[in-house]
Amino acid sequence: MEQRTAIEPQKEIVYCLYARKSSEDDERQAMSIESQVKEMGEIAKREGLFVKEIRRESHSAKISSKRPVFMGLLDDIGAGKFTGILTWAPDRLSRNAGDLGIIVDLMDQGKLVQIKTFSQMFSNNPNEKFLLMILCSQAKLENDQKGLNVKRGIRAKCEMGFRPGMAPLGYFNRAFNGTKDIIIDPDRAPLVAEAFQKVATEGTSGRKLKKWLEEKGFTNKSGSAVSLSQVYLMLKNPFYYGEFEYPVGSGGWYKGSYQPLITKEVFDIVQKHLIVPAKSKWGSKMFIFKGLFKCANCGSNVIGEDKLRKRKYREDKYHIYYHCSRQVDYDCREDYISEEGLSMELLRYINFTYIAHPQILNLSKEIREGMDEYRKVRDDVLLRQDIDPDEKIMDVRDYARHVLKSGDPVRKRQLIQLFNYQLYLHNRKFVSSKIKK
Fold first, then answer.
1. DSSP run (H or E) holding 192
2. Would 437 be classed as within a structural domain?
3. Whether residues 118 and 209 fall in one domain
4. CATH code, 243
5. Which is it for the CA torsion 371, 373, 376, 381, positive or negative?
6. Whole domain around residue 377: which residue ranges?
7. Of 53, 57, 169, 171, which residue is the least packed, with the fewest Cβ within 10 Å?
8. Is residue 399 classed as helix, strand or coil in its secondary structure?
9. pLDDT in tens, 328-361
10. The domain spanning residue 49 has which CATH number?
């Protein structure tokens, strides 16, 4: 009796509907993601395809392994979650050789049974895989050619004197009768030119220039007051004297076809004024009380600054001052105080607190250890001088006086731990709260 071989029924293909669209120039004309989902969903319904999941992604497919949703889909196909992909066109899956190689490899392994698009179907057979590779390679070729064409177009535009992108403050981008050019902004351009002149002839700083522009009602193109960084970017921009570099840092310089606002000579002078002297190595200057206090007037941090005072007949003298950083209010008029004056004021405030409110002084572990060390040394000195230490009782004021006179910077900063609240400086005096206005 003839034995019949049973034909194993083909397993149902489990599809994942993948829709992708990039916002880049080369794909702006591609069908939107929701349109892709709608069209392919109707095909699935009409042909009875089992779509287990829909995945959407807004990402370019130029570079391999850079699309998180797509890479997750490939991982799930490798794990057996899906055996088919439903997508609008082959170029939705790949525009690079790397991703295409992974797709074909999954088909070779039998894990990816079928790819179905709007007009085609690709299964694990040589002809269909070859066609898939041709279509995806064609998409890559179009990508590469478009990239070259865009770069060539930008280069031609630069050679004609038009810098790509938004014109800086003082100029407008204009489109007229199908042509694009750059024209002077009649409201902002005079102030931009005057700003350069103020720096070149008067040495005006960036902060003062920002304040002057605000007083003149100068705004950026969004209508907001210009920030300090925008002021410096404007002063450093060679566009204003008629040249530009594109891309920035490439060394490719072009002469603009627009009207310059300043001369090259004025621009060069401004750049010299903008040069900041080289700073000392971080940590080489010690400002003992930096960042420990705040300005009582505006709430900014109090910072340190050193000055070398030149003297005609005597040796130059080095000073350290502390003052409001003006981070909150640039016009803050809180007085400067020398480091010596600040030390004396701190000692006065400790003495006042010890007498009036001794209970609020916080004798931390570090303070107590320092006081113990100082007491041992002090008692030893007094005994050698034949003085009974008990006759000269030591308190925190004696210790503070010793630290501020001859202690190291760490011990001096530790004295601030005596207070469990923020200290403020006002008129070169310490106060416990900000001044109410």
1. helix 189-202
2. no
3. no
4. 3.90.1750.20
5. negative
6. 339-431
7. 53
8. helix
9. 888 888 999 999 999 999 999 999 988 888 888 8
10. 3.40.50.1390
